[in-house]
Amino acid sequence: MNITRCLHVALLVSDLERSQHFYESVLELEKIDRDLRFPGAWYEVAGFQIHLMVASNSQGGLDNPEKWGRNRHIAFSVASLEAAKERLLAHNCPLQMSASGRAALFTQDPDGNVIELGEL
């Protein structure tokens, strides 16, 4: 086996409209076309896709509520961690700074999927 790149991550969401607002308006991700019949939305960042799939029985939640980075999560690089933090706070999004002391923070989408934002 010779894996050459990561294509996408699939995240389960309970309310597609609410989730689309978060990924488009808060994270400012670019929505891309999808030709599938089941409800969902696709986004692309630098050739990597995020697939939101509706699952009405999705049970979000943190396995480790004290340290969000020790839960399943997706990580993105940002140009300015301070600007990202200000944007999340302006949209009343929960956030937790990285416990490691590095330039990173964690937030959650409306279904509790953890997202890491790091300044590299």
Mean pLDDT: 93
Walk across the major sheet and give the strand order. Answer: 1-4-3-2
Helix content: 10-25%
> What structural class results from the helix and strand content?
alpha/beta
- The parts where pLDDT drops under 50 for at least 5 residues are none
- What's the tally of helices? 2
Radius of gyration: 14 Å
Give the SSE string.
EHEEEEHEEE
Q: What is the strand tally?
A: 8
N- and C-termini, Cα separation:
30 Å
Shape: globular
Summarize the structure in words.
The protein is an alpha/beta fold and 120 residues long. The chain contains 2 helices and 8 strands. Strands 1-4-3-2 form a 4-stranded mixed sheet, covered by helices on one side. The protein has a 4-stranded mixed sheet with strand order 5-8-7-6, with helices on one face. The N and C termini lie far apart (30 Å). The model has no long low-confidence stretch (mean pLDDT 93).
Features:
four-stranded mixed beta sheet; about 120 residues; alpha/beta
